[in-house]
Amino acid sequence: MSDQGGVPSFHIDQVHRAEQTLNVRLLDDQAELPGVVRMRRWVRDALAVRAGETAVDLGCGTGTEVVELARSVGESGRAIGIDPNPSMLAVARQRAAGVRTEFVEGSAYALPLPDGVVDVLRCERVYQHLDDPARATAEIARVTRPGGRVALIDSDWSTAILHPGDPQVIESMRQRMDAAVPNRRSGRRLRGLLAEAGFVIEDMGSEAVIWGPDSAVPMCTAFAESVVADGTITVEQRDRLLGDIEHGIAAGDYHFSVTMFAVIARHP
């Protein structure tokens, strides 16, 4: 991710090819977290994608869910992945080889689709990256046909819990993340954004996504390094925090989680 004042950029269109391997690994690790698996399964059941439909995954990343959509729409339908990052799209196309899918470079603010052509659209963990989520939601409404279904899924980073560690150091890091993430409370705003865009809310779900040490420690370490670089915490505070986490893991006294929310809506 590109650096802004020592903190990695959370704008997905600013992730450069040089960081792509790390970004893909993080997405793969997160896709295996039980909470993410359960949330995705719930969303699939709620959307009930049918053969012959046009289904879109906005912010498709590595393309995993586009492949799932392709299985549901069959040969008579379309499964389309949209992402602003061309190098990520290259990974998705490679992984979806042999499956009837389409991958298109595009922005959430200007979807590369005509009006009213989409039967089903899912968008997972994209809104936290957006500076103007209302504009993106209006675009989703534009491309969704009457009766079409939409699922917005996102984390609410204000629900993040990290243990153990000095509460003051953790709070300093939390405040720095507040400044770095464009829309870190996105999870709680999804329903209102959809309602404002004219959608009818049909269901909501949530899942506390719990990171195990293997997936959480690299992310915590990378962020701790970045906030040392910008002066948010000292080297000594970083070392103490990472040591506390290491000892907590060894003793079985460790926790890192964030709550994800999903909203299912219908275009009237």
TrEMBL record:
Cross-referenced SUPFAM superfamilies: S-adenosyl-L-methionine-dependent methyltransferases
Annotated ranges, domain Methyltransferase type: 56-151
Keyword Transferase applies: yes
A Gene Ontology BP annotation from the UniProt entry: methylation
Alphabetized UniProt keyword annotations: Methyltransferase, Transferase
Record keyword Ion transport present: no
Domain of life where this protein originates: Bacteria
TM region(s), chain numbering: none
GO MF annotations in UniProt: methyltransferase activity
UniProt cross-references to CDD domains, sorted A to Z: AdoMet_MTases (cd02440)
Protein name: Methyltransferase domain-containing protein
Organism expressing this protein natively: Nocardia aurea
